[in-house]
């Protein structure tokens, strides 16, 4: 038995040593951005740090807790000269980080007063395979939208640099959330992409649908009054917010009809129940003929 146990234990110890060494490397916070509804963006730099789209890191702030490590999805693109995370203030640790960064103060915070941060990672996810397909469906539920911030930013950088060599030709993006106000920073990113794609006369490259699954009577009244306006009253985007949940069977059949004979990547970051639904739809809408349309399902659950 010990012969079978020793090998994996040695590998595990080596992996822990590597992670400890990486976590001791110096991390510099270059910028702290306060977004609406108590969400902060930390932009950081670390020597030798290399990332891919959709990856995540573990973060420790010793001034808040010397032992706690928390996972955060990277929201920056590999093409940017920094890496960033978005943190929503929802608990004691995130509240401590918010205060340590001076976000609770009105005056400008000096860089040398920012707290020390330890970073372990990055670690890979299924989202890294996005650029292997010509057509993809990206589905983010709630906070699961964060990996796709990195993906969409990277797509834009690649598109601007050399669109002819970009394998990815069409993105169908679905965002399901109970309250869009908590993720206004992401709506801002979509606005920027929407405007830039229109400037380049390629608005069809990115097709997105935002579904609001939780809304109250005041929102309904506001929606009715402003329904005829050019831009959506909630997100400010040209694409109007939809209410309820998508009819996934219709969505898959429509996309399959528009891309016959294609391999379509389906990427989800969301709950297990939604993963089961999308997996079943991917299987049922894929053709038995190798030359037909095939949906390849990839998931990242939280």
From TrEMBL:
GO molecular function: metal ion binding; superoxide-generating NAD(P)H oxidase activity
GO biological process, one term: superoxide anion generation
Entry-linked InterPro entries: Cyt_b245_heavy_chain, FAD-bd_8, FAD-bd_FR_type, Fe_red_NAD-bd_6, FNR_nucleotide-bd, RBOH/FRE, Riboflavin_synthase-like_b-brl
Record's keyword terms, sorted: Cell membrane, Electron transport, FAD, Flavoprotein, Glycoprotein, Heme, Ion channel, Ion transport, Iron, Isopeptide bond, Membrane, Metal-binding, NADP, Oxidoreductase, Phosphoprotein, Transmembrane, Transmembrane helix, Transport, Ubl conjugation, Voltage-gated channel
Localisation per UniProt entry: Cell membrane
Gene3D superfamilies registered for this protein in UniProt: Nucleotide-binding domain of ferredoxin-NADP reductase (FNR) module, Translation factors
Main location: membrane
Catalytic activity as recorded in UniProt: NADPH + 2 O2 = 2 superoxide + NADP(+) + H(+)
Pfam family name, one: FAD_binding_8
Domain of life assignment: Eukaryota
Cofactor(s) needed by this chain: FAD
GO cellular component, one term: NADPH oxidase complex
General function of this protein: Catalytic subunit of the phagocyte NADPH oxidase complex that mediates the transfer of electrons from cytosolic NADPH to O2 to produce the superoxide anion (O2(-)). In the activated complex, electrons are first transferred from NADPH to flavin adenine dinucleotide (FAD) and subsequently transferred via two heme molecules to molecular oxygen, producing superoxide through an outer-sphere reaction.
Protein name: NADPH oxidase 2
Organism from which the protein derives: Eurystomus gularis
Higher taxonomy: Eukaryota, Metazoa, Chordata, Craniata, Vertebrata
């Amino acid at each position: 038995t010990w012969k079978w146990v020793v090998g994996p234990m040695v590998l595990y110890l080596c992996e822990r040593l590597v992670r400890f060494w990486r976590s001791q490397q110096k991390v510099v916070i270059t910028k702290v951005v306060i977004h609406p509804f108590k969400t902060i963006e930390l932009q950081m730099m670390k020597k030798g740090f290399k990332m891919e789209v959709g990856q995540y890191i573990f973060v420790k702030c010793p001034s808040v807790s010397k032992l706690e490590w928390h996972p955060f999805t990277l929201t920056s693109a590999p093409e940017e000269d920094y890496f960033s995370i978005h943190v929503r203030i929802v608990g004691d640790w995130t509240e401590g980080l918010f205060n340590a960064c001076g976000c609770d103060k009105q005056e400008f915070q000096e860089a040398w007063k920012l707290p020390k941060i330890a970073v372990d990672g990055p670690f890979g996810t299924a989202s890294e395979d996005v650029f292997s397909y010509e057509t993809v469906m990206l589905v983010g539920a709630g906070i699961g939208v964060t990996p796709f911030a990195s993906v969409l930013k990277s797509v834009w950088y690649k598109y601007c640099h050399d669109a002819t060599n970009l394998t990815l030709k069409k993105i169908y993006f679905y965002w399901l959330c109970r309250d869009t106000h908590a993720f206004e920073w992401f709506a801002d990113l979509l606005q920027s992409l929407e405007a830039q794609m229109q400037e380049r006369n390629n608005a069809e490259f990115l097709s997105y649908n935002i579904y609001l699954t939780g809304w109250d009577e005041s929102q309904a009244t506001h929606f009715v009054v402003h329904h005829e306006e050019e831009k959506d009253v909630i997100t400010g985007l040209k694409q109007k917010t939809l209410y309820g949940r998508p009819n996934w069977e219709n969505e898959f059949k429509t996309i399959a009809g528009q891309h016959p004979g294609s391999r379509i990547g389906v990427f989800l970051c969301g709950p297990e129940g939604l993963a089961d639904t999308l997996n079943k739809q991917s299987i049922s809408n894929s053709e038995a003929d190798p030359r037909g349309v095939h949906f390849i399902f990839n998931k990242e659950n939280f």
